[in-house]
Amino acid sequence: MLRHQEMTRYIEPLREGGSLPLLAEADDGFCYVAKLKGAGHGPKALVAEMIGGEIARTAGLRVPELVFLTLGEEFGRTEPDEEVQDLLKASQGLNLGMHFLQGALTLDPYVNPVDAALASDIVWLDAFLTNVDRTVRNTNLLLWHGRETWLIDHGASLFFHHSWSDPELAARSPFPYIKDHALLHKASRLEESAEKMLSLITPAKIQEIVAGVPDSWLIRDDITATPEEMREVYTRFLTSRLESSPLFTKTAVDARKAII
Predict the structure, then answer these.
(1) Which of 31, 110, 154, 183 is most deeply buried (CB count within 10 A of its CB)?
(2) What integer pLDDT is reported at residue 15 of this predicted model?
(3) Closest by alpha carbon to 66, among 181, 160, 150?
(4) What are phi and psi of 26, to 5 degrees?
């Protein structure tokens, strides 16, 4: 589903957040924000980034193109920054790249206009994905080419997979963290968004997206399941989440009423 590219040039670290993504050039001549498996939460963040980003794209939202980005052994040998050098060495192999939006600006939810329909779509999506990282402090929304709103960084989605204790229970949670969402105050059409999203994000599409997650990202020291068994859990979580739409949609509606 995603293109495979080789990382040919490391440009600079992007010191935002805890994952330390890198700006890099690939063999297709384009620049990418490289999300590396050796950073932060490791491959789990790449799984969440890929699944979350591709589901958002399926829902008709703007997400920069994602590619599989291979990092060779030569990277990191001459890097003077020890932190970056260690990160590059720990990330050899298959990583994830997000097309770099040159000149994009961070969206301010209280200054930049976002219409109610788009805000509602994004809030519903983040409640569905259990994405805890789209707050006023860090919107992970960019403005590009004027007023186009682009979604980036879904690595904090699928919160259940950090503990892996009860995915089914997590799937049927109301997701109370939606109260901190950066666009909640503008999301006045959540019920309409729910109906729209459920028509676009189907179980078949979820299965297709999850099937594309590489085996190497699904091997964990704390879990004995095979990559295929892991995919089955992710697929069940997301399809159960679809069924729980009335629950988490109502939670978002109630949370918005509390701040308006």
Answers:
(1) 154
(2) 64
(3) 150
(4) -110, 175
- Strand order in 105-106's β-sheet? 105-106, 141-144, 148-151
CA dihedral of 55, 59, 62, 67, whole degrees rounded to 10: 30
DSSP 82-114: HHHHHHHHHT-EEEEEEE--TT-EE--TTTS--
The whole-model pTM stands at 0.95
Distance CA 180, CA 188 (A): 15
Number of C-alpha atoms within 13 angstroms, CB side, residue 121?
21
Q: What is the largest CA-CA distance in the chain?
A: 54
Indicate the residue type of 78.
Answer: T
8 Å CB contact between 126 and 20: no
